[in-house]
Design goal:
single chain; 2 domains; Peptidase M23; about 15% helix; alpha+beta; 4-stranded antiparallel beta sheet; Glucose Permease (Domain IIA); binds zinc ion; about 325 residues; 18 strands; 7-stranded antiparallel beta sheet
Length: about 325
């Protein structure tokens, strides 16, 4: 078993560990509302989802640009370095995967000013190693100097076959980031994870995923082929499964932002009245779903629940087009 997760803060600001309020490290949007820099449905009156946290710099050069180093928070392997700021709304960004954790989460560092020389896909990094300099790069919005920040994410990625899904969307621009495109990434709440770890409520990511609350439970008759997501994150299975051992599909629990965090294999006979590929919503936590209106996970028509747009996208990425 893996030991307790040891994780550092991605910037030199010690405010979180000193127990200071979020104003001491969170960079708000132009709204000035500090919560807008947190994770969740924190923007546009609660309707827009922010998949990470925004952290402001402590030091700047004479031009007012940030000089704070950015650190890898855990040991890991660099998977993606995007050096051209115009290629992503993340600007210059780095993704690191952490095979020492269960599940092997990724961390993402965005809007960087500069990336440490020599850092490339495949580079192994140590916990606390400097990987970049904080900045304000982005392809879509000009982030003003005053709001330079690190966008920091922790999460899991959905599909090896991401490119097939991407091509089918007809976005009109090529995917420059392979599987490390933001659309293939699902972030959890980094600040909540740090808080739970500090409070001792969880010891590692496995604990953290186990205490996620199901907002939607769904069954899908996906056939015997196992989605690579469950292959890569076997700890998210609730019961061990032998490959192709009569598995006809899955019962999956999704948290409030649609992360498929608990997978139970179903025998083909348990899905006898399902059409191939059919998905049925079994249960919805309506109070939580309402609270997280930045995500459309389930919608009710004529008294029947079905997957909402955001959940449907997750299902398409996990199982292929339906
Ligand atoms: Zn952000």
């Amino acid at each position: 078993m893996a030991g307790r997760t040891e994780i550092v803060w991605p910037t030199p600001n010690t405010a979180f560990f000193d127990g200071k309020p979020i104003e001491a490290f969170i960079q708000p949007t132009a709204s000035g509302i500090v919560e807008s820099g947190l994770y969740g449905g924190v923007r546009n009156g609660g309707t827009r989802f922010h998949e990470g946290i925004d952290l402001f710099p402590l030091k700047r050069d004479r031009q007012g640009e940030p000089v704070d180093p950015v650190f890898a928070v855990m040991p890991g392997v660099v998977r993606h370095v995007s050096t051209l700021p115009g290629n992503s709304s993340y600007g210059r960004y780095i993704v690191i995967e952490h095979p020492g954790e269960t599940p092997a989460v990724y961390t993402l560092y965005a809007h960087l000013r500069a990336i440490e020389p020599g850092l490339a896909a495949g580079t192994e990094v140590a916990r606390g190693q400097r990987i970049a300099t904080m900045g304000r790069s982005s392809s879509v919005i000009a982030i003003p100097k005053a709001r330079a920040h690190l966008h920091f994410e922790i999460g899991v990625w959905l599909a090896r076959d991401f490119q097939r899904w991407y091509d089918a969307q007809k976005f009109g621009s090529p995917n420059m980031h392979g599987i490390w495109n933001g659309l293939n990434l699902m972030g959890l709440d980094p600040l909540d994870f740090y808080r739970c770890l500090r409070a001792g409520g969880v010891a590692d990511f496995q604990d953290y995923f186990r205490q996620m609350k199901p907002v939607v439970r769904l069954r899908i008759a996906s056939g015997s082929r196992m989605p690579d997501f469950v292959e890569r994150y076997p700890s998210l299975r609730t019961t061990p499964v032998q490959a192709a051992d009569g598995v006809g599909g899955w019962e999956i629990a999704f948290n409030e932002t649609g992360i498929p965090f608990a997978w139970t294999p179903l025998q083909a006979h348990e899905l006898a009245d399902y059409k191939p590929g059919e998905a049925r919503v079994l249960a919805v936590d309506e109070a939580l779903a309402k609270k997280w209106r930045c995500k459309s996970l389930a919608v009710k028509t004529r008294g029947q629940w079905r997957a909402g747009d955001d959940l449907d996208t997750v299902l398409q990425l996990l199982f292929g087009p339906r």
